[in-house]
Amino acid sequence: GFLGIEIHEVTEAEADQTGAEVGEGAYVSKVLAGMPAAEAGLRPGDVVLRVGDTPVHEPDDLIQIVQAAPVGEKVVLTVLRDGERRKIAVEVGRRPSPEALLASAEGGRWWRGMRVVPLSDELREQTGLEAGRQGVFVREVRDGSPAAAAEIVPGMVIDQVGPTKIASVREFAAATAEGKGPVFVHVAGAGIKIIKAPEKDAPDPGGSGENKDRPGGKGAGKKPDDKLKGGSRD
C-alpha cells in the first residue's frame, strides 16, 4: 500500500514544536499533493502515533504497516497535531508511477498530456516574464497527447483556463476539472489554445486520469484513433 507521505524520526526541535516525545512516532515532513494522505487531510508537521490499535514507535513501523495493507483498505491514523491527538482515516492507495510521483513532489499536475508546475521567480526570469506574473509553467508535454495537438510545448506559461484566471497549480486543477470537452487556455505570449478531450476509448497519453481505461481493462483491444498512433502511453 501507499499513502504519499515522507516521514522521519521525531527530533528534539520537532518534539518541542509538536509536544511529541523524541523518538516517538513518525514525523510527517512532506505530504504529496493528490495522494491518499493529502486527500484525507494529513499535514506536514503531524506526528503519526498509531495505525488502528498498533503503536508507531519509529518510522519503519508505519512503513511496514502501510506496505502490508491491501489497496483500498481504510486505516485510521492517530496523529498528534498542535498538541492534540486526533484520528484521520486514510484509504490505502496503490503506489503511482514515477512520473506521477515526480509531478506530485514538485507540486505539479498532469492534465491532457502536459505536466504543469508552480511558476517560481526563477522560471519567470527564464521565460522573460515580469515579476509577479501569475500562472503555471508547462514542464513536460507527451507526444501524441491532446496538449501536443494543441501546440502546447514545454516552457509555456498558462495563465487562464476558460474564463478563469489562474495563479497556482491548485487553481489550474480546479479549473480544468470542470471541463469535459474542448477547453480554452490562454498562454502568455502565444494567445488562446484549444485543448481537446482525450478520445473516449484511447488511453490518455498524458496520465491525466480522465480516462481510466488501460490495456487489459475496459476498452482494451480496440483499435486506437489514427491521430493517437505513435504517442507514448502510461
TrEMBL record:
Q: Where is this region: Disordered?
A: 196-234
Alphabetized SUPFAM superfamilies for the sequence: PDZ domain-like
- Per UniProt, residues of the PDZ domain are 1-83
One Pfam match, given by its short name, reads PDZ_2
- Gene3D superfamilies, per the entry: 2.30.42.10
Bias category Basic and acidic residues: which stretches? 210-234
> InterPro entries, alphabetically?
PDZ, PDZ_sf
Q: Which family does it belong to?
A: Belongs to the peptidase S1C family.
Concerning PANTHER family, the annotation shows: SERINE PROTEASE FAMILY S1C HTRA-RELATED, SERINE PROTEASE HTRA2, MITOCHONDRIAL
What's the protein called, per UniProt?
Answer: PDZ domain-containing protein
Organism of derivation:
marine sediment metagenome
